[in-house]
Design goal:
316 residues, mainly alpha, 2% strand, two-stranded antiparallel ribbon, binds Phenylacetyl coenzyme A
């Protein structure tokens, strides 16, 4: 009989050979737990992420903007759905995951605990938050767990539309009145640093990175992705004609990258531990939405039951 070591060796070999791990394959318990943690946090982020933008659907400035925002928020519900389904392949139920979110036990991205104050915040979320999300998620299309990698391919396609709709909002406003451009600058001033925090703690303070990189759950480290995001975003800010709120931001010829200032890690810790500006409001809104959707779930289950008995009766 084979021992666990040889299973582990074969498992790591598969990963080293760039083969996907599928739900039916043997996997170390810690790999399964890491995936449940990461994919469910990601799913929670998608559905909590609907809330700050959902607030603005009734206040979009034109029919075209309203349609695009509605489609974006619906896409995010869909992303949550694919990601919860991918998590369920690892042997945990959706109800359990939702309970973890609603009881405050599970994390979701820090970024969604900041308030959306103006219409240009919707543009800034699309440009910066979706921009950061894509940077991280394109790499995850090559993650080692098959169901997660496949979900990411579709999610990335949709996220790139989200980023473009955000940038288009900002570009339009920057070409508008002086007040509109000021509004964009104010939004970017507030969303820039929280967007950099989305990539997680610095590599030296990231407890999960080393193992997740070895298992190829993560393909690039938190700091590598953050640097790529800064390098991609600075030229886009120049086209908008706005400044990014970091006096230390400067192209470094010898590194071939932009240098940037230190993130306020104390703020990050506070937001992640439940003390951000909107943590309580977001969880309350999420729980309320879940409770108000109870009748829909009950009706769908009753209908599924009815169809099942009908088809059983016709077989009999
Ligand atoms: N916020 O050791 P690491 C989106 C936690 S989707 C809160 O580095 P890891 C779409 C981390 O969970 C945005 N917590 O951890 C959208 C861990 O906690 P734990 C979400 C954070 O997992 C756009 C601890 O710190 N994307 O935005 C954060 O190796 C617009 C130690 O950290 C994903 O979830 C944070 N920012 O790396 C929707 C992508 N950062 O579990 C609507 C998938 C770290 O020990 C509108 N996830 N933590 O208690 C990942 O790539 C990884 O999980 C990282 C963290 C990179 C987020």
């Amino acid at each position: 009989m084979e021992n666990v070591n040889s299973f582990e060796e074969r498992f790591q070999q598969k990963i080293d050979n760039e083969e996907k791990i599928e739900a039916r394959d043997w996997m170390p318990e810690a790999y399964r737990k890491t995936l449940i943690r990461q994919i469910s946090q990601h799913a929670h982020s998608e559905i909590v992420g609907m809330l700050p933008e959902g607030n603005f659907i009734t206040r979009a400035p034109s029919l075209k903007r309203k349609l695009a925002l509605l489609a974006k928020v619906q896409d995010e519900a869909g992303h949550g759905l694919y990601l919860y389904s991918a998590t369920e392949t690892l042997g945990i139920s959706r109800d359990e995951l939702i309970d973890q979110l609603h009881s405050g036990k599970a994390k979701y991205s820090s970024i969604f605990n900041y308030p959306t104050l103006t219409w240009s915040d919707i543009g800034a979320i699309g440009w910066l938050v979706d921009g950061a999300a894509i940077m991280n998620q394109v790499a995850l299309c090559r993650t080692s767990y098959g169901p997660y990698a496949r979900a990411m391919v579709r999610i990335c396609k949709e996220e790139s539309f989200h980023q473009r709709q955000g940038y288009d909002i900002l570009l339009t406003m920057c070409n508008g009145t002086a007040e509109q451009k000021e509004m964009v600058q104010d939004s970017v001033n507030r969303w820039w640093w929280p967007s950099l925090m989305m990539f997680g703690p610095s590599d030296s303070d990231s407890p999960h990175s080393a193992q997740s990189l070895k298992w190829k759950v993560k393909r690039l480290s938190n700091d590598e992705l953050r640097q790529r995001f800064v390098d991609m975003t600075v030229p886009q800010a120049e086209i908008l004609g706005i400044t990014l709120p970091d006096p230390l931001l400067k192209y470094n010829e010898s590194r071939g990258h932009y240098d940037f200032g230190e993130i306020d890690w104390e703020e990050f810790r506070q937001v992640v531990s439940g003390n951000g500006p909107c943590n309580k409001e977001r969880l309350q809104a999420r729980v309320k939405a879940h409770e108000e959707g109870n009748w829909v779930r009950e009706a769908a289950s009753a209908y599924a039951e009815k169809m099942k008995s009908k088809s059983l009766a016709s077989v009999a």
